[in-house]
Specification:
Rossmann fold, 17 strands, 2 domains, 15 helices, 406 residues, 39% helix, globular, seven-stranded parallel sheet, alpha/beta, 19% strand
Length: 406
C-alpha cells in the first residue's frame, strides 16, 4: 500500500482546507494507507488532533519561535486565529519561512519515504515541495485561495508558477476553477482533474425535526469577516425580522479577528433582533446545531471551498447562498433544481472579494428575499432522490475517485 505525505502550510484543525486534510486522512486510514503530515502550527500548541496519525509521522513547522518569529501565515487575509498575511512578508521573513519548510520537507521525505505527496494550495509551499521532491509524484490540491492570492500578489507569481506548473497532477474543486488554473499557472488541461470536495456522513446527517416550535432558526458557519458577507447577512436578517410576523433566530458560528470581527461583534451587540455570536465549535457540535435549525445561509463574496453548503444540505437544511463560481456545477442539476437551494446574485467585485459599495444595498435586499423564500418553504419536504444525490458527495466518494490517480 502506498505511503502518502500530506502537506499544509497552515493549521490543520481550523480552516476548510484543514477539514479537507483531516477527512482525507480518515478515509486513507480506512483503506490501510500509511500517512504522514507536515503542517504549520503555533509554538504554544501542544497537541494537534490528526486522527490515527502517529506522533512520529507528524512533522510540524512551528511559528512564533526564534527561527520563525511571527504567527502562522494564513491563506486568507482574515483567519480564525492570529496569523500573518502573505503580503506582510518581507524578504527576510519569506526566507525563514521557506527554509523552515524546506528543512521539514527534507526530513519528512528522508524518514517517512513517501510514494506520493498531496500538497494543499497552489501557492508558495506547493511550488517549494515540487522543487524539492523531483523523484516523487506530487499532486497539488487546489482550494481556491491559492488562485486568489496569485491574482492579488504579483511579487510571488513567478516563483509559484515555476514550481506548480511542474506538478504531476492538480485536483481542482470545479470546472470554473480548472479553467482558471490552466490559464494562470500554465498547467495543461489534461493534468487538472476536477475532484470536488466531500462531507463527513458520520457527522452530518438528517434527523427528524420537530415542527412544534414557532421560531425559524437560521445559521451561518465560517470565518467572521467582510469577504464572507457576514455583515450583510446580519442586516438582511434584521430587515426580515422587522417585516415578517414569524419569530426568527440567527446563530453565527465561527471566529474572526481584527477590525472586521470587531465591527461584526458590534452589529450583533447593538441589534434588536435575536442574533447570537456563538464562536467556533467542533464539527460534531456544529452538526447538532444544523439538525436543530431550518435554514443555512452562506453570503460569501468568495469561497475557495464551499464545503459547508453540502454539510448543511446533508443535515436537512434549506440553503441560501451566493452564486459562487463553480458551485452549481459541483452540486449538479438535480440538487440545483430541487428548490432546496436559493442562489443570490453576487455584487460586482474588485480584487476577487471586495464588492462595489453602490451594489451593497441591493445585495442586502436580495439576501433578505432569498431567506424569505426559504422560510415560506418550511417545513422541510421529504425528497429521497435528493438525499441520494447528496450522499454521493461524501468524503468516501471523493477519496475513491482520488485513488485512481495515486
Amino acid at each position: 500500500m502506498k505511503k502518502i505525505l500530506h502537506i499544509l502550510s497552515q493549521r490543520p484543525e481550523k480552516t476548510g482546507s484543514g477539514i479537507y486534510l483531516q477527512s482525507l486522512l480518515k478515509e486513507g486510514n480506512k483503506k490501510g494507507y500509511e500517512q504522514a503530515v507536515i503542517a504549520g502550527v503555533p509554538a504554544n500548541i501542544e497537541k494537534v488532533d490528526l486522527g490515527n496519525i502517529d506522533k512520529g509521522d507528524f512533522f510540524p513547522v512551528k511559528f512564533n519561535t526564534k527561527k520563525l518569529p511571527f504567527p502562522v501565515v494564513g491563506m486568507s487575509d482574515v483567519m480564525p486565529y492570529p496569523s500573518t498575511k502573505y503580503r506582510e512578508l518581507n524578504s527576510e521573513m519569506l526566507k525563514k519561512y521557506k527554509n523552515q519548510f524546506k528543512d521539514t520537507i527534507i526530513k519528512a521525505i528522508d524518514e517517512f519515504q513517501p510514494d506520493l505527496i498531496l500538497s494543499n494550495h497552489l501557492w508558495i509551499l506547493t511550488s517549494l515541495v515540487k522543487q524539492l521532491a523531483r523523484n516523487i509524484k506530487v499532486i497539488g490540491v487546489s482550494h481556491g485561495t491559492g488562485v486568489r492570492q496569485l491574482k492579488k500578489l504579483n511579487k510571488y507569481q513567478d516563483y509559484v508558477v515555476e514550481g506548480c506548473q511542474d506538478l504531476d497532477l492538480v485536483f481542482a474543486l470545479n470546472n470554473y476553477q480548472k479553467k482558471e488554473i490552466e490559464r494562470l499557472y500554465n498547467i495543461p488541461e489534461n493534468k487538472i482533474i476536477v475532484m470536488g470536495a466531500g462531507y463527513n456522513s458520520e457527522i452530518f446527517y438528517e434527523s427528524q425535526k420537530s415542527n412544534c416550535t414557532k421560531t425559524i432558526d437560521i445559521v451561518y458557519a465560517g470565518k467572521l469577516s467582510y469577504a464572507k458577507g457576514v455583515k450583510f447577512l446580519i442586516k438582511a436578517f434584521e430587515k426580515l425580522d422587522r417585516q415578517r410576523e414569524q419569530k426568527f433566530s440567527l446563530k453565527l458560528f465561527g471566529e474572526g479577528s481584527g477590525e472586521e470581527f470587531a465591527e461584526i461583534n458590534n452589529l450583533v451587540q447593538n441589534s434588536k433582533s435575536n442574533i447570537e455570536l456563538v464562536g467556533s465549535v467542533p464539527q460534531q457540535k456544529l452538526a447538532e446545531e444544523f439538525r436543530k435549525s431550518d435554514i443555512f445561509c452562506l453570503p460569501s463574496f468568495y469561497e475557495g471551498l464551499a464545503l459547508v453548503v453540502i454539510e448543511a444540505l446533508a443535515s436537512g437544511l434549506r440553503i441560501v447562498t451566493t452564486d459562487l463560481p463553480g458551485i452549481k456545477n459541483w452540486l449538479g442539476n438535480e440538487i440545483n433544481k430541487s428548490g432546496v437551494i436559493e442562489y443570490i446574485e453576487l455584487p460586482r467585485l474588485k480584487n476577487t472579494d471586495i464588492p462595489h459599495n453602490e451594489d451593497l444595498e441591493q445585495f442586502v435586499e436580495s439576501l433578505k428575499k432569498g431567506l424569505a423564500i426559504q422560510v415560506d418553504k418550511q417545513p422541510l419536504l421529504e425528497n429521497e432522490e435528493l438525499k441520494t444525490k447528496v450522499k454521493k458527495l461524501s468524503w468516501e466518494g471523493v477519496f475513491s475517485r482520488m485513488e485512481k490517480y495515486f
